[in-house]
Amino acid sequence: MKQWKVSATIVMIVALIVAQYILAFFVVYSPVPIIQWIGWGVWAISVIFGFAPIYILGRKGGVPKGKSYVETTRLVDTGLYSIVRHPQYLAGILFNLAMMLISPHWSVIGLGMVSAVLIYFDIRAADQEGIEKFGDAYRDYMQRVPRANFLLGIARLIKTKLAGTR
Predict the structure, then answer these.
(1) Structural domains counted in the chain
(2) Is residue 11 part of a domain?
């Protein structure tokens, strides 16, 4: 039976995010309130990208009964997964950005930047796991859907839909 793998990178990312979160609320510093409101908007988007995959993968990923939603047996490339390949990693990056905007203190920004970079490198490892698990189907998916750039993903999706209606 395959055990759920926790890497040192994931542990560091979680520790950095928790530290950033705590600092953001103890060092609430925002010289421009509109920036703080934008931060809350980014935070709301991160919540969607963070929690929606739990439902989506559980429903469409062919997850065996009683298993974690990450133990998919089918490649999911519809819905949110037609916009970005790694919505939960993107949620982490957006959460980092949100905390930096809500409390733009140097300590919060520093922790957020380090965490975001570590998340991005971990996404690359997740792509390799996707190739190992799903092979050429995942390679094709990588060509169609951006890794974490949801704006590009939305633009590509709109372009594809418009081309299909002609």
Answers:
(1) 1
(2) no
